[in-house]
Write a structure and sequence with these properties.
globular
Length: 196
């Protein structure tokens, strides 16, 4: 049930506009927070900012672009390490923290869903960076999947650990360190690359 979550996320992928709208309606979303660094899609133009905002408005869903604060492709070269966006450095910026504050405030007024392009949460900064930071603030996060189910962020983290090849925890294991390592490894694999 989506009622168990303070905030949702979704990846638009290549979904047709009606299917995307149905997923949002099924999850009772009333506001989309667009966390794409560039709110434009050449391949799927119905997900470009203006057309998307217009479509959402027809469905009674508010649209808030926040790619400047919460996007996965930083403009600042200092936020890349070895040519890869450094999510830990990004999470430590005042702009990012202010973006989280705004999302948290909006989640008190609306049924907020963070939106990016990637279908799979573990392939996207909306989960690996933004969702993680919001979960650390105590929010219950759910990821809307293409079949309409909502996966709890804690379940997504278990998939992340399995993907990283982390062995099951034992009594002497530091679960937080294993999870940090899994996040770091996955983020490095999927994060944006600096343009030459």
């Amino acid at each position: 049930m989506t009622e168990n979550f303070d905030l949702l996320t979704i990846g638009h992928s290549n979904l047709p506009p009606d299917r995307f709208a149905a997923l949002l309606q099924g999850a009772r979303v009333t506001a989309i927070v667009d966390v794409r660094s560039v709110a434009f899609s050449r391949r799927f133009p119905w997900f470009s900012q203006q057309r998307l905002a217009e479509r959402l408005a027809r469905d009674g869903i508010s649209y808030l672009p926040m790619g400047d604060a919460l996007g996965g492709r930083p403009r600042d070269a200092a936020l890349y390490r070895d040519g890869v966006a450094d999510y830990e450095a990004m999470a430590d910026t005042s702009a990012f923290r202010a973006g989280l504050d705004r999302v948290t405030a909006e989640a008190r007024r609306y049924r907020v869903c963070l939106m990016c392009a990637e279908r799979e949460p573990l392939d996207c900064h909306r989960c690996l960076l933004v969702g993680r930071a919001l979960a650390a603030r105590g929010l219950a996060i759910g990821h809307v999947l293409v079949d309409g189910t909502v996966e709890p962020h804690t379940t997504t983290e278990q998939r992340l650990l399995a993907l990283a090849g982390a062995a099951p925890a034992d009594l002497l294991d530091d679960a937080a360190a294993r999870l940090d390592h899994a996040y770091r490894r996955r983020s490095r694999a999927v994060a944006a690359r600096a343009k030459p």
